[in-house]
Design goal:
seven-stranded parallel β-sheet, ATP-binding, 39 helices, Rossmann fold, Helicase_C-like, 21 strands, alpha/beta, 884 residues, globular, P-loop_NTPase, nucleic acid binding, helicase activity, eight-stranded mixed β-sheet
């Protein structure tokens, strides 16, 4: 009998399937009392261990995954049986998952968080001991100050990083790929006198999380940067942690980058949003840094090398795995009547087991928020839970519902109490999050203040809060693993998750730091169009289709002969795709005719279509006057509109396109007086109103804000008012209070009740959402085009005279006009903390001291800043800004 035949028999063996079935039920019996006592015969268990041992030697990840499932269940149901623990150790070793052996605590004579230091006090016999020792030594990564025991996949990745130039990585969310990348970079910084890395993440929230992680582990001689400023000082050792949008600036500076890592590379698929920027930036960094080592990573990607080559035009090696060190129980909950649910468990694709559980609560006529609250309370009231919700409003609303049925926790951690005090003082005393935190519950979505989001992530990771309601921010790589994940029909906004996205989502179920498994609870109604089994039975792998390959199918070549805004298709989605790919192709052509020609040929356009397309591009773009450097820096904006702006600036009085610091700049003047003044002699606010109004005439950016972000009533005056408050350095809580006061004084349908909880929390969320989408994203996007043009046509004297204008995009994005605050934010400190530090720095130091010293050096000599709130001091210590 061949080895392959034996492995296949073992994989399908009835005894193995039955034991996995029984052990799964036994594991869940502490949660569901309808499961009766289960005993497994000793002979069956011995046979199953032998079958799992056969599977552990397979080269097929699916076979290994089943063996690992059994091994984990074997341990979880027999934690005090030394002989079984020894068998688990052998199986984990053969499966290449020695990291899991840290849970076999009863085997060891000592207890240590690092499994490298664990010593078994039991004898395995000479032959097995030699095998285990040999495998163990192979799976240890030794660094200067520490050693780590890793999985087969992690060791392969470590070896690849040290020996291969380009790598495309594909592995499940919980496989530990980011851990290895970070350890590799830390090791490189330690061993080299000069080393620079670029770490590209898909969201600003991930910038914060990754920056904190690096700051907490890197030595002080390595600079961690989360943005690129106009006065960017280059250091021998530095790591830039940037979104693709922020990478555009790094393309324009003279710098050598040695290592480039692109995390969550699947973001390049987004044909309706940021995919254009992703593809453009990834293409350009490959050209800008030809000698850099390039690494891309994403979950469950088929043919990752093909995607890598298409993006970077470089060959690469592939390191991939379908194995995760944790396994997941996939459970469906179907309400059949009143308090009873059908509980359906999937062990592997297409194989289910079912029982009925009475939850002792009548669910009839209850909404989804009430239903999930009662289920979480029954199933996992003390566990770490994520409830995945399709929308930020519902994440907040459902968290409040759950908090209302949970008793207030007397054992609330000091850090949770400090966050509650901060929210009362700095956001609003009636913020919904306060009541949730009192019950160790939180919500996590895009409209949380940065410092609050950071604290929630930290508290949840350290198990100081137990349940968190999340939106699709969880799909962007935010590291928030849970013991349990609950979801109704999983969606992003109102669009069902793809199978690929669902696989990425459920990768959050299972905390390798504290458990070998996680549970997914899919709550399904009888009339649901999305069934749990459709997701559970799916393969989550997919081949990534880059933005342009997806969007090109929506383009008719004749679209290239009309303004982008006039392109119309049968649906909003197809229209957006066609508009985006039209812009993409125009930029390709302006880079060089050969680039556009090569692209069209690669996409299999006919000779006739190529001739028509190239003709339109030539007719419309050859007479363009805007400097090429401006176009390179603004790849997501139609070149024809950029040229329109350039022509207008050149023909107008330049003072209509800048902010002039005249004697009226900081004054408050009556509207009647303002009307009599030329634009350049008006106060700052009215100059900004003029500037944004003129930009909107060309780019129609307020309409974009409505369509893309659902922000209503955008105008030059309303956006300038919010921007003025933001640029003044006002904390977000102060801006929220100003908006509440303003809206409570209105006499129309916008009027709110300043005592009404729902009204107050709507203003809180609207203010933060407005800042994150309009003030810090949409406005800088178009103001940057203006500034890039001015940078090309201004003399050095003019650049100095109008330096406020030249810095306006960065100031809008970061939320301040103060250079020192910009420096603090760019070093990875969140805005609200940076503002407080700046105020105290000015208060506690002399002007002479400030002229001679750097604010970051001053900070690094402080052990504690007494005037700062505890939450700020804790944050600064966590990112190693304060002295330890």
């Amino acid at each position: 009998m061949s080895d392959d035949s034996l492995i296949l028999q073992a994989f399908k063996h009835k005894t193995l399937n039955n034991v996995i079935f029984d052990y799964t039920l036994k594991l869940l019996s502490s949660t569901f009392d309808s499961i009766k006592s289960i005993e497994i015969k000793h002979n069956e268990l011995k046979k199953t261990i032998w079958l799992a041992s056969i599977l552990s030697n397979s080269d097929n990840d699916i076979h290994k995954r089943k063996a690992q499932l059994f091994t984990s269940l074997l341990f979880l149901n027999n934690q005090d049986d030394i002989e079984i623990l020894k068998a688990c150790y052998v199986l984990f070793s053969r499966l290449g998952n020695l990291t899991a052996t840290r849970f076999l605590k009863n085997l060891y004579s000592n207890q240590d968080e690092n499994p490298v230091e664990l010593k078994s006090e039991y004898n395995f016999g000479d032959f097995l001991s030699y095998e285990l020792l040999f495998e163990r030594e192979k799976k240890i990564i030794s660094l200067e100050n520490n050693s780590f025991l890793v999985t087969d996949f992690q060791k392969d990745l470590w070896e690849g990083l040290n020996n291969i130039s380009e790598i495309a990585i594909s592995a499940p969310t919980s496989s530990g790929k980011s851990f290895i990348i970070k350890k590799y970079l830390i090791n490189e910084f330690f061993n080299k006198n000069e080393f620079r890395a670029l770490y590209i993440v898909p969201s600003r929230a991930l910038i914060n999380q990754v920056s904190e992680e690096f700051k907490s582990e890197l030595t002080d001689d390595v600079r961690v940067k989360s943005s690129v400023t106009e006065e960017n000082e280059v250091f021998d050792k530095e790591i830039y942690i940037l979104t693709p949008e922020r990478c555009i600036k790094i393309l324009d500076i003279d710098i050598k980058i040695d290592f480039i890592f692109i995390d969550e590379v699947q973001g390049i698929e987004d044909a309706l949003g940021r995919g254009l920027i992703f593809e453009y930036v990834f293409n350009e960094i490959s050209l800008k840094f030809p000698s850099a080592k390039f690494i891309s990573a994403g979950p469950n990607i088929t043919n990752p090398n093909k995607t890598f080559t298409e993006i970077f035009e470089r060959d690469c090696s592939t390191i991939q795995s379908k194995l995760s060190p944790v396994f997941q129980l996939k459970i469906t909950l179907k309400n059949n009547q009143g308090s009873k649910f059908d509980v359906v468990i999937q062990n592997e694709s297409g194989i289910y087991q079912k029982f009925v559980q009475d939850f002792k609560y009548n669910f009839k006529n209850k909404n989804k928020g009430e239903t999930v609250a009662q289920l979480v309370k029954y199933i996992a009231p003390k566990d770490s839970n994520i409830v995945f919700v399709h929308d930020g409003y519902y994440a907040q609303h459902w968290a409040v519902i759950y908090a209302s049925i949970i008793e207030e926790d007397d054992d609330l951690d000091k850090e949770v109490k400090e966050l509650i005090d901060f929210l009362k003082e700095d956001i609003h005393k009636k913020y919904y999050l306060i009541e949730c935190l009192k019950k160790k519950i939180a919500y996590h979505h895009s409209t949380l203040p940065d410092i609050v989001r950071k604290e929630i992530e930290e508290l949840y990771t350290n198990e100081k809060i137990s349940t968190i309601y999340c939106t699709s921010t969880l799909l962007e790589g935010i590291n928030l693993p849970a013991n349990n994940l609950f979801t109704f029909q999983p969606k992003k906004k109102n669009i069902p998750l793809t199978k690929f996205e669902f696989g990425n989502l459920i990768g959050r179920a299972g905390r390798i730091k504290s458990s070998l498994y996680g549970s997914i609870y899919y709550i399904q109604n009888n009339n649901d169009s999305q069934l749990a089994s459709d997701y559970y039975d799916a393969e989550y792998d997919k081949e990534i289709e880059v933005f342009s390959s997806n969007a090109i199918n929506s383009l008719d070549v004749h679209d290239l002969n009309i303004p982008t805004s006039k392109i119309e298709k049968g649906s909003d989605i197809e229209t957006k795709k066609a508009q985006q790919i039209s812009i993409f192709l125009k930029h390709k052509y302006l880079k060089g005719e050969d680039y556009a020609l090569k692209y069209l040929k690669n996409k299999k356009f006919t000779d006739e279509e190529i001739s028509i397309a190239m003709g339109y591009l030539k007719d419309n773009l050859n007479a363009i006057d805007v400097p090429p450097n401006v176009l390179i820096k603004n790849p997501s904006i139609d070149p024809l509109l950029q040229n329109q702006l350039y022509t207008k600036i050149k023909s107008d009085d330049i003072r209509e396109w800048v902010l002039s610091k005249t004697s009226n700049f900081a004054k408050f003047l009556d509207p009647e007086k303002i009307e009599t003044l030329p634009i350049y002699d008006r106060p700052f606010y009215w100059q900004l109103v003029n500037l944004l109004g003129k930009l909107d005439e060309i780019f129609n950016m307020f309409d974009e804000g409505f369509k893309k972000y659902n922000q209503k009533w955008l105008s030059a005056t309303s956006t300038s008012l919010q921007a003025k408050r933001w640029l003044s350095g006002a904390p977000i809580g102060q801006i929220i209070k100003q908006n509440i006061e303003y809206l409570s004084g209105r006499n129309n349908y916008n009027k709110i009740d300043p005592e009404n909880l729902e009204d107050i929390n709507r203003v809180i969320n609207d203010t933060i959402r407005y800042n994150s989408t309009i003030t810090t994203y949409l406005l800088p996007k178009y103001v940057k085009v203006l500034v890039d043009i001015l940078n090309e046509i201004f003399t050095d004297e003019q650049k100095e005279e109008y330096k406020l204008t030249m810095s306006l995009p960065t100031m809008l994005e970061l939320g301040t006009k103060e250079p020192l605050i910009i420096q603090l934010i760019s070093s990875g400190i969140t805005r609200s903390v940076a503002i407080q530090i700046f105020d105290l720095y000015n208060k506690n130091t002399t002007k002479d001291f400030r002229e001679k010293n750097d604010i970051l050096n001053w900070l690094s000599n402080q052990r504690d800043i007494k005037e700062l709130k505890p939450i700020y001091n804790r944050y600064l210590k966590r990112i190693k800004v304060l002295a330890t």
